[in-house]
Amino acid sequence: MIMKRTTKLSVAGVSLVLVLGLAGAGLSNAHDRWSGYGGSKGGSVAYAHGQGGHFGGQRAKGRKMMRRMMQSFDANEDGSLTQAEIDTGRQQQLAQYDSDNDGTLSLEEFQVFWMEMNRSRMVDRFQRLDEDGDAIVTAGEFLEPFANAVERHDRNGDGVLSKDDRRKKGGRGQRNPDGDGAVAQ
Questions:
Q1: What's the total number of domains in the chain?
Q2: 28 in a domain, yes or no?
Q3: Is residue 79 situated within a structural domain?
Q4: CB-hemisphere CA count at 13 Å for 175?
Q5: What is the pLDDT of residue 137?
Q6: Is 140 within the bounds of a domain?
Q7: Could you count the other beta carbons within 10 Å of the beta carbon of residue 86?
Q8: HEC states along the chain?
Q9: What average pLDDT does this structure show over 43-51?
Q10: Mean pLDDT score, 171-183
Q11: Which structural domain, as residue segments, surrounds residue 97?
């Protein structure tokens, strides 16, 4: 079945609303003030390894989100989603995680939902750190992604990370090769 452009845009809009709804419920801010960092308290491993840019591969994330929505909500398995299917799927999720059956989710109930929905992301991040694949993250493996963080991100060459090291909006400046700490545009 070929979807019309307006249908694709509608489905993308629903995806965005769901993502923003989850973000409002406590996700890390994906567009942190520090360009290239995943969050204000240390960032993600993907950013630490220099993967992704300011938006960290939003198209790929959108496709993955769409795939997850289809798996979760496409009740008749026809490859498309109606608002009724999404609403029904969300109601079922609410009922599944509402352990006290009061029609709401407490923080504790939401935590169970959140952890289940994000377990694969957690495992992926763990596996990125576990370089030798022994299912244990050693101190060395844990510390390595941030070992040269100041050196890599100190744009003004003052030896510390501060708001002065943020990328300028719209610019991808790098430190000048002459080492004077000035940002080249």
A1: 1
A2: no
A3: yes
A4: 17
A5: 96
A6: no
A7: 20
A8: CCCCHHHHHHHHHHHHHHHHHHHHCCCCCCCCCCCCCCCCCCCCHHHHCCCCCCCCCHHHHHHHHHHHHHHHHCCCCCCCCCHHHHHHHHHHHHHHHCCCCCCCCCHHHHHHHHHHHHHHHHHHHHHHHCCCCCCCCCHHHHHHHHCCHHHHHCCCCCCCCCHHHCCCCCCCCEECCCCCCCEEC
A9: 37
A10: 49
A11: 59-129
C-beta of residue 71 within 8 angstroms of C-beta of residue 95:
no
Q: Is residue 22 part of a domain?
A: no
- Residue 25: pLDDT band (50, 70, 90) is very low
**C-alpha–C-alpha distance, residues 137 and 1, integer Å:** 46
The whole-angstrom separation of Cα 146 and Cα 44 is: 10
Q: Is the C-alpha dihedral spanning 175, 180, 181, 185 positive or negative?
A: negative
Predicted TM-score (pTM) of this structure? 0.48
Please report the pLDDT score of residue 59 as a whole number.
83
